[in-house]
Task: inverse folding
């Protein structure tokens, strides 16, 4: 079928109006969203006409189908972070793959002042899901059968907006309302900087002090990467021969390198990852994985070294902590409302590490935009559509764990903007990574359930769960053999595929996706209340097993163990998102779930010693000491007791009594230990099961090991068999 015709005169008039609007925006240093609704072919023809009407700086077309170049598919939009475009067209029609929330957020932040972001959608957008929903349609759901609460909300927001340009093929664009030209901000005295707070950040970077890290947070477009580039150049000129830079990808720090090059015409980019100033001075980008390898080998870091970490919220916390120890002068920068991670979650979780390792650290926040002017219509629009600045609810002092929780209907939530913003804000501040796509998953993902403590518009704690499993035995068998991998069912499918337990996928599960409490209400039992209430409801609905998966952190393991959960799986590679090994915990809700849980426990316990000796030889000792509790309980026999006494009080070689010391670590995990006993248990468990040397122990390794064994042996509960103590 040939494309529908377009009124040439109307198209020319529409293009002229948009070009005129772009000039107005450029004078104000603003940007704007153009919502182009209608038939796909007619809308694309209009967008192409706008594209070709003038020489735009770095235009970009996003969508599975692109009539012009350059273009890229929506799934690769985050690769444009750190670049700039004057015109971006996002085609969200079905034939172009539908609407990708993360893509809109990513490319929206790359639009330069005076730029237009054209969003193409069907005329009746929001009445049904689109093909991009296939990414969240868990087996056996079809994406066409999912709810579309998220799209309904987006269309409602756009229809009501006066800050966007409304355009259809049958009418000229309605340009919306632009406020008066904003007052230009005061210029800093530093000619290299665009804003006052950017200049403050540069001075702080120039003056980095030993063991006093700098943490810079900012919304997008505030010039934090450029500030780091300026700071790097001045350090290289005055203090350092080399500055190391790292980020999730090289493209994320392109503006940093560009700023350095503009300030140093005498320098040159000898490679994509290296800028040389001469006299052996260089700015060097190192990937996070390579940087950690260098740090472990001792080839990077140490006295006199500098490290700049950009987009830190998108990097695993264990890596950040490792670098914090290795580099005496270090700065972290991150985007508060990021598309690879939330800066608020980063600040919350990394603050404890900074306080413990470098209590003199300093925080700076950049608020003045650099790439556009304050009051920018596009920034306000994207913040509203994607809830990028969802507020944290205010704390309610009178709320306690005795307050009952209640389920939240997702359709009702999608229609209540205030309640949705508060709930999403609570999730964002408590989780290390939250992306725009998570909001769609929350509202339309199959099997998703929400439960909160507190009133709708001031939730104090929230639980997000997802139902899994219920497969046929035949399909479960295929999954366990690796022949099938249906979409979704993360926990149930992983247990079947990696543990070999077919019944794990036949059983019906409810998995905790996220659980969050208000920062002021933590450790008050609200999380436990949510879990208890939801488990009762799940059991009544026929759910047999309840589980969660998270990064292997000792504090989190203690929390879940206190709720009655047991470990059923431990990943053997680090998760890219957290840098930690994934742990799965489970609990049986009904008698029919108990044999499945028992089989999973037995399989995990049988595999654990081998995993710790090989694949998990570098698992943190604090986690290992908790995991050995999952091994079968068995009283120490007389031979084991004698071996332990001989090591602790005589001259028996610990290596020749390893099996008995493993037994001591296993049983001591069930004792009530003092602080000294807990420290000894961690060291013994890491040595006995992973052959890890004792950390910071006095004396030779054998002498230190004897002392650890003696400390732990002396803490065993009194029993009739304890006569050899």
Result:
């Amino acid at each position: 079928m040939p494309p529908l015709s377009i009124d040439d005169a109307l198209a020319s008039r529409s293009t002229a109006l948009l070009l005129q609007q772009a000039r107005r925006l450029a004078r104000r240093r603003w940007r704007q969203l153009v919502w182009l609704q209608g038939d796909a072919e007619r809308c694309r023809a209009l967008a192409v006409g706008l594209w070709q009407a003038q020489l735009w700086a770095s235009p970009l077309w996003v969508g599975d189908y692109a009539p012009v170049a350059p273009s890229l598919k929506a799934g690769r939009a985050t690769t444009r972070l750190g670049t700039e475009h004057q015109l971006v067209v996002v085609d969200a029609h079905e034939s172009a793959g539908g609407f990708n929330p993360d893509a809109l957020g990513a490319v929206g932040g790359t639009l330069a002042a005076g730029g237009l972001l054209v969003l193409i959608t069907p005329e009746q957008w929001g009445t049904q899901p689109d093909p991009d929903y296939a990414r969240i349609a868990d087996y056996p759901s079809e994406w066409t059968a999912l709810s579309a609460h998220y799209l309904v909300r987006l269309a409602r927001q756009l229809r009501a907006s006066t800050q966007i340009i409304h355009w259809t093929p049958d009418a000229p664009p309605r340009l919306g309302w632009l406020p008066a030209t904003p007052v230009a901000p005061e210029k800093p005295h530093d000619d290299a900087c665009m804003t006052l707070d950017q200049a403050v950040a540069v001075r702080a970077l120039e003056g980095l002090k030993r063991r006093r890290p700098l943490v810079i947070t900012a919304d997008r477009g505030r010039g934090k990467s450029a500030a780091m580039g300026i700071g790097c150049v001045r350090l290289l000129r005055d203090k350092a021969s080399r500055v190391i830079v790292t980020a999730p990808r090289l493209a994320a720090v392109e503006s940093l390198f560009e700023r350095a090059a503009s300030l140093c015409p005498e320098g040159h980019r000898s490679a994509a990852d290296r800028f040389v100033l001469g006299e052996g001075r260089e700015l060097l980008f190192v990937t996070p994985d390579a940087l950690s390898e260098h740090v472990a080998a001792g080839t990077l870091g140490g006295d006199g070294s500098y490290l700049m970490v950009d987009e830190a919220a998108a990097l695993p916390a264990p890596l950040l902590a490792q670098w914090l120890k290795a580099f005496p002068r270090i700065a972290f920068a991150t985007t508060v409302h990021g598309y690879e991670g939330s800066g608020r979650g980063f600040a919350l979780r990394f603050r404890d590490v900074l306080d413990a390792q470098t209590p003199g650290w300093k925080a700076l926040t950049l608020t003045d935009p650099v790439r556009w002017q304050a009051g920018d219509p596009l920034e306000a629009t994207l913040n509203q559509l994607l809830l990028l600045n969802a507020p944290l609810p205010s704390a309610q002092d009178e709320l306690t764990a005795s307050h009952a929780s209640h389920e939240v209907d997702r359709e009702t939530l999608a229609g209540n903007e205030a309640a949705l913003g508060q709930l999403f804000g609570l999730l964002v501040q408590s989780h290390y990574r939250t992306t725009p796509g998570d909001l769609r998953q929350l509202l339309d993902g199959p099997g998703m359930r929400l439960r909160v403590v507190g009133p709708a518009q001031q939730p104090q704690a929230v639980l997000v769960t997802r139902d899994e499993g219920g497969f046929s035995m035949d399909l479960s068998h295929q999954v366990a053999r690796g022949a099938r991998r249906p979409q979704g069912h993360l926990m149930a499918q992983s247990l079947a595929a990696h543990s070999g337990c077919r019944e794990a996928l036949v059983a019906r599960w409810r998995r905790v996706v996220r659980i969050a409490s208000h920062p002021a209400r933590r450790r008050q039992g609200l999380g436990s209340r949510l879990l208890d209430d939801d488990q009762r409801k799940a059991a009544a609905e026929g759910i047999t097993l309840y589980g969660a998966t998270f990064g292997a952190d000792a504090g989190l393991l203690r929390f879940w163990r206190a709720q009655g959960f047991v470990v059923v799986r431990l990943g053997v590679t680090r998760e890219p998102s957290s840098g930690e090994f994934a742990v799965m915990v489970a609990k049986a809700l009904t008698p029919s779930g108990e044999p499945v849980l028992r089989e999973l426990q037995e399989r995990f316990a049988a595999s654990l010693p081998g995993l710790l000796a090989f694949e998990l030889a570098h698992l943190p000792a604090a986690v290992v000491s908790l995991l050995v509790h999952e091994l079968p309980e068995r009283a120490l026999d007389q031979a084991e007791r004698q071996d332990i006494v001989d090591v602790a009080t005589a001259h028996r070689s610990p290596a020749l009594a390893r099996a008995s010391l493993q037994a001591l670590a296993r049983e001591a995990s069930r004792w009530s230990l003092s602080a000294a006993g807990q420290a000894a248990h961690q060291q013994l468990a890491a040595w006995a099961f992973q052959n890890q040397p004792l950390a910071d122990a006095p004396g030779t390794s054998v002498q230190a090991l004897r002392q650890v064994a003696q400390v732990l042996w002396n803490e065993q509960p009194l029993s009739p068999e304890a006569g050899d103590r």
Observations:
- Confidence is low (pLDDT under 50) at residues 720-725.
- The longest strand covers residues 111-121.
- Residues 8-28 form the longest helix (21 residues).
